[in-house]
Amino acid sequence: MPVKKKSGEKRVYQLKVVLRDIRPPIWRRILVPHEIPLDQLHRVLQVVMGWTDSHLHEFIINGVSYGDLSIDIDMGDDTRNEKSFKLHRVVPREKGKFHYLYDFGDCWEHEILVEKILPLEKGTHYPVCITGKRACPPEDCGGTSGYEELLEILKDPSHPEHEEMFDWLPGDFDSGKFDVELVNVELGGSLR
């Protein structure tokens, strides 16, 4: 049952972020201040998912596109400036869903669900990642189909590209690994 919000009371959104079209799923559960602007939510998503912010992105909320209009590229006449919109204004209720698209070439689509709206806990620093599963795909691997192919190549030592792919990946890449503590250190260092 949702907690009634008093006027002006600070709240926290519990979000579940799922990278679409990948099995087994890659997901994160995070807590963010309800007043977080969408441009800052973008930065949080980059950290918790493991992306490097090397590509364009957009939020799609109730059919409306929000993006970074400061980049010298045509985002379309209908795209709104993400810096001007706070999360609780565009997704005001629990169970609200929206999408975050990262890298228009590889087309990484994230579905985000507002699981809960909670009271702010004193002494807790937000944003914070509370859990998640599996590593983020490496940048520029070709989207979901390219990632699936990469994983198949990595499983097969006799594949002609096996060694090349291992050399291309970061030395510590493990598709099944997710380190919530490391993510929270990075959140603390890059966003506060």
Describe this protein's structure.
This protein has an 8-stranded mixed beta sheet, with helices on one face. The protein starts with 10 loop residues before the first strand and ends with a helix. It is built from 5 helices and 8 strands, in the order ββαβββαβββααα. It has one domain: MM3350-like (Structural Genomics Hypothetical 15.5 Kd Protein In mrcA-pckA Intergenic Region, Chain A, Roll). It has 192 residues and is an alpha+beta fold. It is globular, with a radius of gyration of 18 Å.
> Main sheet?
8 strands, mixed
**Mean pLDDT over all positions:** 91
- Taking strands numbered 1, 2, ... along the chain, how are they ordered across the largest sheet? 5-4-3-6-7-1-2-8
State the name of the first-level CATH class: Alpha Beta
Proper CATH architecture:
Roll
Rg calculated over all Cα atoms: 18 Å
Topology, number of strands: 8
**What is the CA–CA distance across the termini?**
32 Å
User: Helix tally?
Assistant: 5
Class inferred from helices and paired strands: alpha+beta
Please report which band the strand proportion falls in: under 5%, 5-15%, 15-25%, 25-35%, 35-45% or over 45%: 25-35%
| Low-confidence residue ranges | none
Q: H/E series, N to C?
A: EEHEEEHEEEHHH
Q: What overall form do the CA principal axes indicate?
A: globular
The CATH H-level superfamily is: MM3350-like
Query: What count of structural domains?
Result: 1
Helical proportion, percent range: 25-40%
